[in-house]
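Re: the request from the purification team.
They wanted to know what the chain is likely to look like in 3D before they choose a buffer screen. I agreed to run a prediction and write the result into the notebook, where they can find it.
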Amino acid sequence: MSQPVPTVRHVFVYGTLRRGEQRDINRLQPAPVQRGWARVPGVLYDLGAYPGLRLGGQGSVLGEVYEVSADLERQLDAIEEVWPQPNGEYLKREVLVRLEARSFEGGREIVCVLYEIAPGRATGKPLIASGDWVQYRAGNSA
């Protein structure tokens, strides 16, 4: 009996799952494959220990794009608490992103999963104008 061929999935990470951050996706198994960097239209909020992205608007949010296995995607769903028991903080979305020129496949468009903060969860929270969590956090820890 043959095994089903896994479907290639991609994820856009913009906060604590970014390289070198608290929950660095690269420390998870099976290991993801980084495909590059991208920006999505949206607004980034400081929720304390982590950020929250709301899609849409005039701004853009910087993130890293990774190819992930189904097993790793399930782990990410559990980390963001959208599965198996959703807590309502994050919503799992699929968005089309264009890899930045500095990426190996710059200009390529990829459908990515991302975790958007639920409406109302970012109300009254500080805005991260740069859209870059790592840069913002580094500037606030100095």
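For the purification team: The beta strands are 9-13, 33-46, 51-68, 90-98, 109-117.
Please add any questions underneath this entry.
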